[in-house]
Amino acid sequence: MSNSNNVSPSNQTFAALRRNYGTDLGNLAEEHFKHDLNQDDRDALAAAGKQVSTYSMVGSAVGVSLGLLLAFRVRRNRVRAFNAIKVQERPTSVQFKDGRTEPLPDLIPMLRPSTLGDVAAYTFFGAGGLFLGGETGLLAGTWRARSTISRDDAMKQRIETAFRRFRADVLRREAEVMETGGSSGLGI
User: Fold this and answer.
1) How much is the pTM?
2) What is the pLDDT of residues 163-186, one digit of tens each?
3) Residue 169: which residues within 8 A CB-CB, separation 6 or more?
4) CB atoms < 10 A from the CB of 174, how many?
5) How far apart are CA 53 and CA 45, in angstroms?
6) What is the pLDDT of residues 45-67, one digit of tens each?
7) CA angle 165-167-172, nearest 5°?
8) Angstrom distance (rounded) from CA 49 to CA 154
9) Residue 128: how many CB atoms within 10 A of its CB?
10) Residue 18 is inside which H or E element, if any?
11) 58, exposed or middle or buried, with CB in 10 Å at 0-12, 13-18, 19+?
């Protein structure tokens, strides 16, 4: 039942990488878009879609930037802490009550910041910033787009009606496919 037009869930992780759900579903949506809405409604939806996309991209860019800045600060503080520990006088052995003395291992080489640690920090902080910034941008863009569409009550009603008709058409087509036992091709 897999369809090559479907976008895999792993590609849906980041808001900046999300795409549509297949050509058949896209064509059906485009058909309803052209026939159920007037030009002003289509323009408002296109502007709302651009707002969501812009907010997601800006959020992703800001998130990556803040993630990399945070990684830089963490690395700098890690180096400072290492240098502070390295110059301090440390005990070299422990003497027990019974007079026995045991040497302490030198752990300084294990605490030294490494290139691998730097790469991991920049990678994970950058990816975390991309995820958080992109999702925040997506939410903010969706909220902004919704408020743009909701300004005109008549337009909002026409868009909601067109969307209900589209969903009903998708469900009818999916029911037909389920009754015949074929693959939907609708990306659902």
Assistant:
1) 0.68
2) 899 899 888 888 888 888 766 555
3) 28, 32
4) 13
5) 12
6) 899 999 999 999 999 999 999 99
7) 95
8) 19
9) 16
10) none
11) middle
